[in-house]
Amino acid sequence: MKSKWNKKWKSSKRPSKQRKYRYNIPLHLGGSLLSVNLSKELRKKYGKRNIRVRKGDKVKLMRGQFKKKTGEVAKISIKHKRVYVSGIEIIKMDGNKVPYPLEPSNLMITELNLEDKKRKKSLERK
Fold first, then answer.
1. pLDDT of residue 31
2. What distances in angstroms separate CA 31 from CA 14, 25, 34, 39, 70, one per listed residue?
3. What is the CATH number of the domain that holds 83?
4. DSSP class per residue in the chain
5. Residue range 83-97, pLDDT digits in tens
6. Which of 80, 96, 97, 104 lies 20 to 30 Å (CA to CA) from residue 49?
7. Which residue, 74, 83, 89, is CA-closest to 37?
8. Is the per-residue pLDDT at 3 higher than 70?
9. Are 59 and 82 in contact (CB under 8 A)?
10. In whole numbers, what is the pLDDT of the chain averaged over residues?
11. Does the pTM exceed 0.70?
12. CB of 38 closer than 8 Å to CB of 107
């Protein structure tokens, strides 16, 4: 078997190789897989189609069982490439409520968290 992850790898038609690439990507590059589409108003304002999601952003779910619900990003798992939104929970068999992990591609940012000066500056540059 070849090395786990190669930065020169471009693409493959085989889904298994695509999954392997995503699973074995280093953490410092894995954040690029956490980009989320912006709403139409934000696209027009900032001139960007998508941006990396951050804790505190307001998002709307576009796919799945929680479709059309909105909430604030509570936690992000870079290792698992999942986003946790406040108010989006599943109830386990024993009655406990557990935050539901969401795929970033199924979300849309409706309001940005601009407390970070660096993020605000990079958005206003465009």
1. 87
2. 23, 10, 5, 20, 22
3. 2.30.30.30
4. ---S--TT----S-HHHHHHHHHH--HHHHGGGGEEEEPHHHHHHH--SEEE--TT-EEEE-SSTTTT-EEEEEEEETTTTEEEEEEEEEE-TTS-EEEEEE-GGGEEEEE----SHHHHHHHHT-
5. 999 999 999 999 999
6. 80
7. 83
8. no
9. no
10. 91
11. yes
12. no
Which tokens is 53 given? 């999601």
User: Confidence band (pLDDT; 50, 70, 90) for 2?
Assistant: low
d(CA 112, CA 54): 8
In a domain, 95, yes or no: yes
The residue range of the domain holding 107 is: 35-124
Please report whether residue 60 resides in a domain. yes
Q: Is 10 domain-assigned?
A: no
- Number of domains comprising the chain: 1
